[in-house]
Structures are given as structure tokens and as C-alpha cells.
Specification:
This protein starts with a helix and ends with a helix. The chain is an alpha+beta fold.
Amino acid sequence: MWYECVVNAADSIGRTLARLGQLSSRHGSETDSSRQAILRIVQEATEPLSIDDICAVTKLHANTIRTHLDVLRAAGSVERVRENAEGRGRPKWLYYSTQTDDPYLKLSADLADALAEASGPGMASEAAKRWRMADNVRQVQVATTDEAVAVAAGALSRLGFDVDVSPVGNAVFLGNCPYAALVHEHPIICDIHAQALEQVLAGTGQDVELESLDVFARPGVCVAHLRRKDVTPDWVVPGAPREVAASADGQTKQKRKKKSRRTA
């Protein structure tokens, strides 16, 4: 009974993730993707948001967000009101959604409901499996580790991400996340991403594994670090310890100050 509940919840989560990814893939450009992410954040908020509020979630510059909001206002997707504030200074603009029938918003609500009911060990792994099945991302055996990484990159692309592989082949960069507006409130989505990647790599039959997944290492970009034994440097030249580097930087600044005084 317990296992059946896990499978049912995981199936709902996996299918909804697939539909969200497919819906987001219709927006081709990076500009459209950022704008849609901002719209979703405003739509999902329980109260009007300031530009600073949106900055805190997206990590985008305030001027970039303001430009996107102006476009969304012109399209009739959002509106704004002045904040009720006392004291000096002009009150902030607060933005709220004017749309109630956005399919992404409905799917997001469905996903939130499914995640709220999900619990127990193995949930992320089972949801990742169901997600792959819904998007027809299969496990494929290959002959080399480089081919395994290429298969993993292709799978992530099919799941809705913009994908780049490092020249060494030990890191995969993920951009244009279809779920960027949801993961802060539901971080298990990132666990499901990681599980899906691990499953694809395991299916290749090659000795390569996911070492870690850095979520939003840069705004809008996640990094999947891979562990592969066939990629080893001839030797490694260590950098200076942090305290030594800080000391050297301090000495350099002191020398610059002295030189400045002499030339003054």
C-alpha cells in the first residue's frame, strides 16, 4: 500500500514536470525565458511584489527586471500599484498578475499539490524515472565515456534545459531551467533532476557518475559535476592557501599606497 502511494505520487510529479518542460520549451529565446520566469513569480505570489522581491528570487539586475515588467504591463499580463508606505521618499511600485488562465500557473499549482502529498524514501528517484518515461528519455548503453556524457547532455536537453558540456567533459552546464520559478519553494525538484541524470548515466554502462549539482551557481545556470576516472591531469599545480593569498594581496595594496604617497 505504501509503495503504491509512492508510485502514484511520483507518477503525478513526473508527468507534471514533463508537461511544464514542454510548455516552457515553446519560449525559444533567453529574453523570453527570463520574462516568463518573472511573470510566473508574480503570478504565484500571494501578494504584490516589488522589484527588489523579484531580484531576490531571480538574481537578475533590477534594471533588467524593470524592462521585462514594462513589456509585461504593455501586454496586459501584470499591473502595478504604489506601496502604502509612510515616511520620506517615493513609495515603491508593487506588481501583481492580471492573468488567471495561464496554463503554466495551473500546472505549477498541480505540481505543488503533488509535491505536498509526496513523502518517503525513494520518492525523488521514482519521480525522476516517471519524468524520463513521460519525456521518452530512455537509458542507452554506449561504448565510451565521452559518448555517455553526450547521452546525458542530450537527455537533459530533452527534459527542457539549454545544455553545454565543458571541454574536458567533466561538467555539464544547464541553462533556461523550465522550473526556475518553482525550485526555491520546492527544492526537491532539483533532487529529482539529479536523480534523472544519475539514472541516465547509470544506463550508459560507463564508469561516470554525478558528483554534485550546483544549483544556480550563476543566475539562471546550474552546474552538474561529473566523476569520471578516464579524465585525470598529468599533474596538478596547487594554488596558494587562502590565508597566504590574502596576505599577499594585503602586501600588494600596502606597496601601492606607499608608491602613491611618493608620487603625490
